[in-house]
Predict the structure.
Amino acid sequence: MTIAEHWIASSWGAPDTWEFVEHEVSPPGRGEVTIRVHAAGVNPADAKHVASARSGAQLPVPIGYEVSGRISALGPDTRIGSGDAAVGDEVVAFRVRGGYATELTVPAEKVFAKPTTLTHPEAANLLLAGTTAAEMLWVTGSAPGETILLHGASGAVGVSVLQQAALRGIRVIGTASAKRFDVVERFGGIPVTYGPGLADRVRAAAAGGAVVAALDAVGTDEAIDVSLELVDERRRIVTIAAAQRAGADGIQVIAGSMPESARFRDDIRAELVALAQNGDLVVPMARTFPLDEAPAALRLLSGGHPGGKLALIPSS
């Protein structure tokens, strides 16, 4: 076994209560891969899922769901999710436990060849947002030629929705602050400001056409209320941030912890990696932090739009 460092939640609470500790990395068995981490993706779920006790979760909880790095060891007769692999290959891994680490051993099926078009920090942030965005488009049945409404279009999930929708010929009207309109426009969306009068601004942007689906990545009452006002079929409204409203109003809610969502997100990983390899899916970055400064990265993320994704970089 080798000794590595990783972040854990030893009690339920905010990132400032987490601990950065040494741990033993088990050598990979058949169907497993050990990855030397070059970058760990930073996502709101990293903090959300350990903020309070959750059914089925036991402390301590290793933090982090996606990484990019190199294979440092490969189990016998083992292929990764994208096929054959060898020690030294650059890879990404998603839906892992404990990605905020210098090294970790994971199931090989969760590992894919890293797109050569992306840096390690970019690649480490590709799949959580990307699979969430793909599922939002899928569950709402968004199709070429349709116009949809996207709440939170300039955030990480929103930017991935915009890119994936554009590839499919789906027209997206996206809410954002005025200072983030350039982001929405860069990725093919039609920006509108949120706030009073939102429904009328969306109608104007739709230019007389129907808004057939709504994707909520912000979770505000305004987002749900406007979606209900504009979209005729409630099954074509989905939220990732307003579960209580979903239950009350009969709209869809998805989350990586839900079995059906997990299956979809597992199945779509290879397709998204291929899109990134082709240059069709990019990951705008804001900045990186040293791995041992993870709480600072989460504080920046929780404060609002950091201007792109964040990554943690282990010391060499």
